[in-house]
Amino acid sequence: MGRIVRIAETIRGLFLLGLLAFAGGCTLMPASGPVALWPGQRDSGSLPYALMKVTPEVVGVLAKAVPRLATDFKDRRPPKEIRFGVGDILSVTIFEASAGGLFIPSEAGVRPGNFVTIPNQAVDSDGNISIPYAGTIRAKGRTQVQVQQAIVDALKDRAIEPQVVVSVADQRTSMITVLGDVGSVRLPARAEGERVLDVLTRAGGTKSAGYDEWVMLERDGKRSLAPFGALIYEPVNNIYANPGDLIYVYRDPQTFLAFGATGTQNQISFDAWRLSLAEAVAKAGGLNDNTADPASVFIYRGETREVATRLGIDVSKFEGPIIPVIYNMNFRDHAGYFLATQFEMRNKDVIYTSNSVSVEVSKFLTYVGLISTTVNDPISNALQVYALKAATKGTGTFVATNPAVTTTPGGTPQSVPP
């Protein structure tokens, strides 16, 4: 009788243990991630985050925050006239109205014109060039027209109605530097102005698929980054290149990570310069119909403090320039699918789909059944061995299949009083 009581107590203990595990958030159950997320930070010792439900307002804010060159460099005007700098080689031609002047002698004979071309002049370290009878002329920081006028002013009291033409024989300043997948070259800026794609074309063009390319523009100590496709499909991003710009083109395939109750758990490439959340979920194999909770699709991303503020997040609770934000998309709502087509994925985003609560309950029941079976099997085997020995020897009392019945040494079944 005591043995039976101990077995019953063991089984009750196992069920209590299982109930405690379930009440504690199913932390003993195997899972690929959290079952649910809460708007507040529940563990003060872990990294804080903000939880945002995806709404049309949220999608609108994020649409304005995508990487664009035009966002950081808002000046759409063509660059100003090219100005000479130290090291530029200038060609200077001086015309006079008639022979017998300063540069054209009266006995000059047959000439193609009343002009003289002086040897090419390099802008020296002081920013000047030297012109015969005109002396030192300031060239650094001046345009072609300004240098021409300075030479005329210096010669007008000596030459006969002088006119001057200044051109660049070798442009060594006002350059645009291009690096990366298009090659490494320095190109002279053009006076008429040209856009970023024009410069890249002159440099040789990209060497791989455009959607894997990124364009970084550095100007006046400021940098901006955008996908190569943004320059093609959004012309506003194809801004004018300025002298002194550095353009770096490099290949970095855009990818996202998919975890949880999706068709696959993997790192997946965009294979496009732009990808919506709906397309990303489809690329991951969709939601698993047997396990996924459509209302618990989460996108993990770091946002700048400026974007987080526009989303309505209290950024005072966070440190650093990047705020961890988790976006929640509800695919149980029909509107969620429309929002998912407008929610644009970013490079290295993480998508996690939680299991349905019923799946966790099923795991729990399976777990309890496994424990019960594991503990019960050796007990049942021990009882059967004990009964077999008693029956073989014909002595002792043993517990039969029905725990309420015992067998005497004579073999006569007797009921055990409760």
Outline:
The chain is α+β, with helices and mostly antiparallel strands. Helices cover 28% and strands 27% of the residues.
Number of strands: 20
Please give the count of helices.
10
Distance between the termini: 9 Å
Spatially, the strands of the biggest sheet line up as 1-17-16-18-14-15
Order of helices and strands: HEHHEEEEHEEEEHEEHEEEEHEHEHEHEE
Number of discrete domains: 4
CATH architecture of the largest domain: Roll
What's the CATH class label of the largest domain?
Answer: Alpha Beta
Class inferred from helices and paired strands? alpha+beta
> What is the typical, i.e. mean, pLDDT?
80
CATH superfamily heading of the largest domain: Outer membrane lipoprotein wza domain like
Identify the overall geometry.
rod-shaped
Oligomer: single chain
* Largest sheet composition: 6 strands, mixed
CATH topology tier name of the largest domain:
Outer membrane lipoprotein wza fold like
As a percent range, the share of strand residues is 25-35%
Protein described:
This protein is of the alpha+beta class and 418 residues long. It folds into four domains: 2-24 and 360-415, no CATH class; 50-66 and 254-356, Outer membrane lipoprotein wza domain like (Outer membrane lipoprotein wza fold like, Roll); 69-78 and 174-251, Outer membrane lipoprotein wza domain like (Outer membrane lipoprotein wza fold like, Roll); 89-170, wza like fold (2-Layer Sandwich). The protein is 28% helix and 27% strand. The chain is built from ten helices and 20 strands. Strand 10 and strand 11 form a beta hairpin. The chain is rod-shaped and about 150 Å long.
